[in-house]
Design brief:
The complex is a heterodimer of chains A (349) and B (320). Chain A is 30% helix and 21% strand. Chain A has 349 residues and is an alpha/beta fold. Chain A has an eight-stranded mixed β-sheet with strand order 7-8-9-3-10-11-13-12, with helices on both faces. In chain A, strands 1, 2, 4, 5 and 6 form a five-stranded antiparallel β-sheet that branches. In chain A, α5 crosses α7. Chain B has one domain: P-loop containing nucleotide triphosphate hydrolases (Rossmann fold). An eight-stranded mixed β-sheet of chain B has the order 6-7-8-3-9-10-12-11, sandwiched between helices. The radius of gyration of chain B is 21 Å and the shape is globular. Chain B starts with 6 loop residues before the first strand and ends with a helix. Classes of the chains: A alpha/beta (349), B alpha/beta (320). Bound molecules: adenosine-5'-triphosphate (ATP) (2 copies), iron/sulfur cluster (SF4) and magnesium ion (2 copies). The site of one magnesium ion has 4 residues of chain A, from α1.
Chain lengths: 349, 320
């Protein structure tokens, strides 16, 4: 076992020694099942130091489960398997709860989709924020309070003194979200997994928080895995994007490439249903992808999008190849590279 | 049908007393400050504004879930405070921001959806089962999903449950507080199309709170922009988006992140400090952050100036 508080001990010995320029987070062929439901079906992704990797995709496609699996926080009944799950070059697949909880909130922090998952209604904001520092670093109370107040200020909360004394239910949704962001940053993490961190926020605050995260990222080389359904946010801050569908990454690539030359029919569909101010007409239906994500039993074969895909054909029920579509750009689809726009029949509108 | 507005609020105000510490005197947070407006039946009032500006507080007062400190709420021409719970529930229903905490984790989806019907006390079991089923399929949930617990659904599926529950009593008015903010765009499009369809078919009126301006522009016929507890600008949706008058409204519109890679995140010049709701600035409450503020702004509160179908509260609009 590792002595507490000694980070260097985590490098371990032999095979598990982190490589000099290892990715901050490496996930290879991650699978998560809940009884008869395969929630995540073989996901691979990397987050480099200083990089923002965005995870987008339909509701229920497994984004939160992916991040919870990485953090070792799956709900009861969830089973995780992976070929590799490495943080800063160290494989953490066999970490027990004690080792994981030493990492969590310290070197890897998470902002949860449901603020109340990480905020305890029985304690004030101040005591929860300072607890993180006291537990991981043994920081004296007064110093921890200063740090908490400073971070609340940085996420744009005035009168931090007032907020530190309040209970979570006394805060608006947006304030809670900002408290969670500040709390995640208490220990200067190396990796931040943020599940819809700005969803509850209005646009001006969102812009402010995203600028703040970008600043901290530059300062500390923070790697960010950001889950969001807001393609506007993705376009503006992501270095790389992975598009998930029904537990798989169906397309991934550098941001400009993915928006400029989307290959998967699902990605293309997504990009057509964004309401853009000035372009949407009221009382006219928005473009949408009909149908819902199917429930996928373990052992499912074929493209999970085929029931909703306007271009599905016989091959789509077999093994689907992952094909390269450009530098760092991959697609999980049977359609050939540069498949004709003409086949996008339904997207005329 | 009466010609009364579906929702009317007059001089609505809500103050919270927040304790700072054991010995410090409690501070006053004026979450909603003298707000008046009317929503005609069948229309959609979009409410936008900064986090903490009082949108949810306003919504909770209109739903009768929170008593106002002053002013009154009329729903369908009747005083909310004089209505009994069941009558209120048949008239106006909520869909909340956070589908996790608004759904009882210990109940199955179909029982959650049935709750408003059960609370009416007079509806037969068979009728309840039928209407629950109808409501679930309306929002695209299967019978099997109806037997699950909320924790076994994704965030988006849970929000459908909340909408199914709101619709099951066939109310006239639905107050939606960030109903699609937890959903990805394709499901959001489905839900917005569904809400629009339901509105047309059932003649519903919506109060629609969202921070997504593109969504508000799409669904709302009127828009109210809130800042620190007050409505600083309202207008018909088209006019407001085409010609925003208040500097805050303009900043809001400029903050929208369109899906164009490489543009980065704009700094719209509002500064980095957020306002303190317990210490509302004198004069125009927006003046410390306003890029256009001039001498009068810190000393004198702007009047409510008529503008199009609505109004705007800014000194620049008074003189224009
Ligand atoms: N505890 C659980 N038990 C059973 N199934 C679960 C559990 N948690 C999640 N699931 C299922 O796993 C799938 C993935 O869920 P997840 O929460 O990761 O979706 P998501 O991509 O985060 O969606 P959203 O955008 O709505 O948040 C869903 O089908 C969900 O129903
Ligand atoms: N129960 C409460 N006790 C004390 N203060 C409260 C309470 N509820 C709300 N407030 C305060 O009232 C103000 C308005 O909060 P409200 O939740 O209405 O904001 P909002 O506009 O809905 O924000 P968001 O977009 O973040 O949801 C905030 O300053 C909030 O802290
Ligand atoms: S009144 Fe002055 S401070 Fe207020 S919005 Fe108008 S210009 Fe800005
Ligand atoms: Mg999620
Ligand atoms: Mg709110």
């Amino acid at each position: 076992m590792m002595p507490s508080g000694d980070r260097s001990a985590e490098s371990g010995e032999g095979l598990n020694r982190p490589a000099e320029n290892a990715s901050l987070l490496e996930v290879e062929n991650l699978r998560v099942t809940f009884g008869g439901t395969a929630a995540v079906r073989g996901i691979s992704l990397k987050v480099e130091k200083g990089e923002t990797h965005c995870l987008v995709g339909e509701s229920g496609c497994g984004k939160s489960v992916t991040s919870l699996a990485v953090m070792g926080l799956l709900a009861r009944g969830g089973k995780r398997e992976a070929e590799r799950l490495a943080f800063a070059g160290t494989d953490i697949r066999n970490y027990g709860e004690r080792e994981m909880s030493r990492l969590r909130g310290d070197r890897m922090a998470m902002i949860f989709q449901e603020p109340m998952t990480s905020l305890n209604p029985a304690y004030t904001v101040g005591s929860q924020m300072t607890e993180v520092l006291r537990r991981h670093r043994g920081t004296p109370r007064a110093q921890a309070v200063d740090r908490a107040a400073e971070l609340l200020g940085r996420v744009g909360i005035t009168a931090p003194g007032l907020r530190l004394g309040q209970y979570p239910h006394q805060l608006s949704g947006g304030l809670r979200q900002r408290v969670m962001i500040a709390m995640a940053l208490m220990c200067d993490p190396e990796l931040l997994i943020a599940d819809e961190p700005t969803t509850a926020l209005d646009v001006t605050v969102q812009a402010q928080i995203l600028r703040l995260l970008a600043g901290i990222q530059k300062e500390l080389g923070l790697g960010i895995l950001l889950i969001t359904h807001d393609l506007g946010v993705v376009a503006r801050i992501a270095d790389r994007v992975s598009v998930m569908y029904a537990g798989e990454v169906v397309e991934s690539g550098p941001t400009a490439e993915l928006f400029g030359d989307p290959q998967h029919p699902y990605t293309r569909g997504l990009l057509t249903c964004i309401p853009v101010p000035g372009k949407v007409k009221r009382d006219e239906p928005l473009g949408s992808i009909p149908g819902i994500v199917p429930r996928i039993p373990p052992g499912y074969v074929g493209c999970a999008f085929r029931d909703r895909c306007p271009h599905a054909h016989a091959e789509c029920s077999g093994e689907i190849p992952r094909r390269a579509a450009g530098p760092g750009h991959e697609v999980l689809c049977t359609l050939p590279a540069g498949w004709p726009e003409g086949r996008m029949g339904r997207q005329a509108a | 049908m009466s010609g009364a507005p579906a929702i009317e609020v007059r001089g609505l105000r809500r103050v919270f007393h927040v304790r700072q510490g054991l010995f410090a005197p409690p501070r006053q947070v004026v979450a909603v400050d003298d707000v008046s407006f009317a929503v005609p039946a069948g229309s959609v009032l979009g409410v936008v504004g900064e986090s903490g500006c009082g949108k949810s507080t306003l919504a909770r007062m209109i739903l009768g879930l929170l008593p106002p400190s002053a002013g009154e709420v009329l729903v369908d021409g009747r005083r909310l405070s004089e209505m009994d719970r069941r009558a209120r529930a048949r008239l106006i229903q909520p869909v909340f921001q956070d589908p996790f905490s608004s759904l009882n984790p210990r109940r199955r989806v179909r029982d959650i959806v049935a709750m408003p019907l059960v609370a009416q006390g007079s509806i037969s079991r068979a009728e309840i089962a039928r209407r629950v089923e109808e409501s679930l399929s309306r929002v695209g949930l299967s019978t099997e999903q109806g037997t699950r617990f909320p924790s076994q659904l994704s965030g988006g599926q849970r929000q459908r449950v909340a909408i199914a529950r709101a619709l099951v009593l066939r109310p006239r008015i639905v107050v939606c507080d960030e109903p699609t903010s937890a959903l990805d765009v394709s499901v959001q499009a489905q839900i917005l199309n569904l809400l629009a369809e339901l509105r047309r078919e059932l003649g519903l009126t919506y109060l629609f709170i969202s921070h997504n301006l593109a969504v508000v522009e799409h669904v709302a016929s009127e828009v109210a922009v809130m800042y620190l507890g007050r409505i600083v600008e309202t207008n018909e949706s088209e006019a407001l988006f085409a010609e925003p008058r208040h500097p805050y409204t303009r900043a809001l519109l400029a903050s929208v992140l369109t899906p164009e890679p490489g543009l980065g995140v704009p700094d719209v010049g509002l500064g980095d400090t957020m306002p303190d709701p317990a210490n509302i600035p004198g004069g125009c409450r927006f003046h410390p952050r306003c890029p256009l503020a001039f001498e009068r702004c810190p000393v004198e509160a702007p009047r409510t100036t008529p503008n199009g179908a609505g109004f705007v509260e800014c000194h620049l609009a008074e003189t224009a």
